[in-house]
Amino acid sequence: MKTTPYVLGFVVLVILAGAVGLAFKNKGDNGQVVVIKTYEECVAAGYPVMESYPEQCKTPDGKTYVNKVTPVVDTNVSNMIHVENPVAQQIVASGFELRGEARGIWYFEASFPAKLLDANDKVIAQFPVQAQGDWMTTDFVSFKQIVTFSIPETSTGKLILQKDNPSGLPENNAELVIPIKFATSSSANMMTVKVFFSNSTLAGVQNTDCSKVFATSRSILKTSTTGKAALEELLKGPSISESGSGYITNLNSDVKLNSLIVTNGVARADFNATLDSGVAGSCRVTAIRSQIEQTLKQFSSISQVVISINGQTSQVLQP
């Protein structure tokens, strides 16, 4: 078959167009065509590095090159993320604390997505989970998040923790699925306790009383140690919805309750050293004391609160 001049000309134009496009996309400073094959070559050519971990460089034609210098870890989900609470088949109520640890490459910009589904795969909560430290590492970084939700129609469901995937590539997807049970009026006895936080929206901008704190309710599994349960809810801090309504806590994160003993109306609450670590200023000290005291004094059996750290009361929460 003869090749007409028109067909030959068209083929030549296509080849030239491709060559021009390649030169445009991968032309170096000296005018030479640069063939990109590695992350280092992509960076050297001046293309942008995405804010991710491991670092990724992206060329104008959409190709992504990963920094191979970054230490490589076992990408099995079991080696990427560990969950301390909740465990499989655990009964959870709205306001439960999700906590555990994940390797830095599970996060992106210090968080990863999570969602709570009922047994019909209906999403009843969707939220980001925040890292509690520097996530730019291949080591494990702790996370925690208060999860609130409306009572679902089913008694069981699942919690899905997803690896953040800014690249959008299917091969980078990963998730951990935890089967759970919901605490409903039919599956468990529930009770409501109050926890107290500061709230400048409710207090008003002119408020100067640092002891002024406001109650928000938590639904928990019924227990005989109600004071202890209320304090543990307080130490979790505000939930996502409570934070959105202006509630804030003055307590440090990772404060632990060592013990709570109530005798003759006096509640002796003992905490770990994190309670007053780095705490300064009379206003913050007053607010912390008020949060703890008001949370305990909601119970008629408590009229006085003594706060200690590892058994010591002197110099505790001093401004």
What does the model show?
This protein has an 8-stranded mixed β-sheet with strand order 4-6-9-8-7-10-11-5, with no helix packed on it. It has a 3-stranded antiparallel β-sheet with strand order 1-2-3. With 319 residues, it is an alpha+beta fold. It has helices at residues 5-25, 39-44, 200-203, 226-235, 240-244, 282-297; strands at residues 49-50, 56-58, 64-66, 81-85, 91-92, 96-103, 111-118, 123-131, 140-147, 156-162, 175-182, 190-199, 214-221, 247-248, 257-263, 266-271, 304-309. Helix content is 19%, strand content 32%. Helix 4 (226-235) packs antiparallel against helix 6. The radius of gyration is 28 Å and the shape is globular. The termini are far apart.
In short:
By secondary structure, this protein is an alpha+beta fold.
Distance between the termini: 95 Å
Q: Count every beta strand, where a strand is a DSSP E run of 2 or more residues.
A: 17
Whole-number radius of gyration?
28 Å
Mean pLDDT, as a whole number? 84
**What order do the helices and strands follow?**
HHEEEEEEEEEEEEHEHHEEEHE
User: Which range best describes the helical content: under 10%, 10-25%, 25-40%, 40-55%, 55-70% or over 70%?
Assistant: 10-25%
Number of helical stretches of at least 4 residues? 6
Major beta sheet summary: 8 strands, mixed
